[in-house]
Specification:
21 strands; alpha+beta; six-stranded mixed beta sheet
């Protein structure tokens, strides 16, 4: 909370304390500046409160939905109920004003009828010879006159007066007048009628003073009634149309009371109606005349009695039916509100469960699942979340296994790299280069150089069936068996064999070894050769491997002598071939992964292209030849991914004396 927040709250608290103190101590001073500060503080607090509510209360979806439901459903209903209440209040106000005004008009009409009847009676008597001054009410008053005197207490019939009321505002004469007349501090109901008689004209006036007794007889459906006469500019108490009025005369009932409410909706109705009145004391200089206001208090149940009186006994039933229908509508509204709250809670509970689930996931708990108590779209969303978490858990577990496998493959690759020669042997008369690019992490191709004697070098290149870990394991077994068998011919090694090394015999041993120690479908292609730098002869055995090529000038020779692949059958004969190596010749041994890549048209790179490329680069160093072959194969396939392991060995034969020199 900031300093401004505290200051605003202090200002509001001080203003509230002063306002409360004025209720008990009216002389407590007021400050306009403090009121100004209180208004500013209230506006500031409202803005701050709105921002706080939007940040904290409206963050929750449940609160947002509740507020949205309030604005969508509750607020319109409350506004409609308020409008209905105000409309009903105005309707009953208008109804009360109407019945009061109508009753007054009926009394004036009744008074006018009495005056006209008496004027006619007096005119007849005057025509029979009686003098107007001798005209008076008959002693045996007829029934209509008795009824009028009951209805109009204080009824007075006079002749010869009231002629001034028959003059209109423009000075023209009128035959009749009826209305309320204020003279001095007396308010009366007056009716004046003129009739023609032989002696001239006869004026008859009927008057009834407006007293509490008269008002008591007005509209029994209304409660207390009060007449207030306001005169202009006699002490300001009421301002109407920018004209100041003061209350001059008040006449009210004394015995009427508002009955208790018959139901909760039977509220007190207070209304005011303006009655026409002639002020005989009005000064011509006055801009406005005196006004007569009739105020009343009643209840809807009393007015309903008047409203439904034409229905007789059905009136009460109609009013009761109206209340019952309103109560039913109210019950339906509350039921709708309850249903909306339940549905809102269902939605917010599902969203809250999903939010808590995301918190568990964020904390690393992927085993948490959302409750699905219903079968609706939100439940389907919960099921989708649970299925997603299950899929994520499965993918993470698979990723862990894949990572573990990759780690194992990385270790296997490191181990396999140890199986390849760490450094190429150096013998007089021969330059070597070897490149192996596995299609996967580990390779199924195997190459090796074994120096048997200072002048004898064994060269091996094998392609294990399959790829991956299984091919790598078989390659390791092949490497171990080959080295242990070849090294027996090195002097000083355990089990030294002084006889000349025969490549066919070595390959035959490997065949039996693989056949006995691998499954039936496992095999390998193998090229194994031994080069003698003194005799420049290469003895070799090709066991189903793509034949290496020997290029010497324009002559190309393929090394195909040997037999079938190793590891499929137990007793298989293998043959040894021998070629003479000329100085400057090049030997290229390769795996099938170097010649089998296809271009976009499905055409393989092939042996012929390999030979042409090797012939065009035969004068280059072995490393340049190997790089050229690998680069040409990759460009031919046009894809960064290899379908198979690619291995190439390049041996370039030179003259021994050149190296010695």
């Amino acid at each position: 909370m900031t300093f401004v927040d505290i200051a605003a709250l202090v200002v509001l608290a001080v203003y509230a304390a002063l306002s409360v103190s004025r209720l008990f101590f009216p002389r407590t001073p007021q400050s306009g500046f403090l009121l100004f500060l209180a208004v500013l503080a209230f506006g500031y607090v409202m803005v701050r409160g709105f921002r706080w509510a939007r940040k904290h209360l409206l963050w929750s979806l449940r609160n947002r939905l509740v507020i949205a439901y309030l604005f969508i459903a509750v607020v319109p209903v409350l506004l409609l109920l308020t409008m209905a209440g105000l409309g009903a209040y105005l309707l009953y106000w208008q109804l009360g004003s109407y019945v009061l005004y109508t009753d007054m008009q009926e009394r004036l009409e009744r008074l006018s009828q009495v005056a006209a009847t008496m004027a006619t009676s007096f005119a007849i008597e005057s025509a029979s010879g009686h003098r107007a001054a001798a005209l008076a009410l008959p002693e045996d008053r007829p029934s209509y006159l008795m009824a009028a005197m009951t209805e109009l207490p204080g009824l007075k019939i006079e002749s010869g007066i009231g002629e001034d009321l028959l003059r209109g505002r423009d000075g023209s004469a009128q035959k009749e007048f009826s209305g309320l007349v204020l003279s001095g501090d007396v308010l009366t109901m007056r009716a004046v009628v003129t009739r023609a008689v032989p002696s001239g004209h006869l004026v008859v006036s009927a008057s009834v003073p407006v007293t509490p007794e008269l008002i008591e007889t007005l509209v029994p459906e209304l409660g207390p009634i009060q007449f207030d006469i306001l005169r202009p500019k006699k002490g300001v108490s009421v301002v109407i149309n920018r004209q100041a009025y003061a209350r001059d005369l008040t006449i009210s009932t004394r015995q009427r009371k508002v009955p208790p409410a018959v139901n909760p909706f039977d509220k007190l109705i207070t209304g005011v109606v303006i009655l026409d009145m002639l002020d005989q004391d009005r000064v011509p200089s006055d801009a406005e005349s005196s006004r007569l206001f009739a105020s009343f208090s009643t209840r809807p149940s009393l007015l309903n009695r008047r409203l439904f009186s034409p229905l007789g006994e059905l009136g009460g039933a109609a009013a009761t039916a109206l209340l019952v229908i309103g109560a039913v509508f109210l019950v339906i509204e509350f039921a709708s509100l309850l249903t909306g709250i339940v549905l809102t809670r269902t939605i917010t509970t599902a969203v809250d469960d999903l939010y808590r689930a995301t918190q568990h996931v964020q904390a690393g708990d992927l085993s948490f699942r959302v409750r699905v108590p219903h079968r609706d779209q939100l439940a389907a969303l919960g099921d989708s979340f649970n299925n997603m978490m299950q899929s994520v858990s499965t993918l993470i577990e698979e990723q862990r296994q894949r990572q573990r496998l990759e780690n194992e493959l990385s270790i296997a690759r490191e181990v396999q790299q140890q199986l390849f020669p760490h450094a190429l042997p150096e013998l007089p008369g021969i330059e070597l280069e070897a490149v192996c690019r596995p299609a996967r992490v580990v390779s199924g191709d195997y190459y090796d150089f074994i120096r048997i004697t200072p002048t004898h070098l064994a060269i091996a290149l094998a392609d294990i069936s399959g790829k991956g870990i299984s091919a790598a394991l078989l390659m390791a077994s092949l490497q171990a068996a080959l080295r242990s068998d070849v090294l027996r011919y090195r002097e000083g090694q355990p089990g030294y064999n002084p006889s000349p090394l025969n490549t066919a015999e070595i390959v035959s041993h490997l065949n039996r070894h693989l056949y006995r120690n691998t499954s039936d479908e496992r095999y390998a292609t193998l090229f194994f050769g031994v080069y003698d730098t003194q005799t420049r002869r290469l003895n070799y055995t090709n066991a189903g491997h793509p034949p290496p090529i020997h290029i010497s000038g324009s002559r190309v020779e393929r090394l195909e002598t040997g037999g079938m692949v190793v590891g499929l059958f137990n007793d298989v004969p293998f043959a040894q071939g021998t070629i003479e190596i000329n100085p400057g010749g090049v030997l290229i041994a390769y795996s099938d992964g170097l010649i089998e890549p296809e271009n976009v048209y499905g055409e393989e790179f092939g042996t012929e292209r390999l030979i042409d490329l090797a012939k065009s680069n035969q004068d280059e160093p072995p490393q340049a030849i190997a790089d050229a072959l690998m680069r040409a194969t990759e460009e031919w396939s046009g894809s960064p991914e290899q379908a198979d392991d690619m291995t190439v060995i390049v041996a370039r034969f030179t003259v021994v004396r050149e190296l010695n020199a």
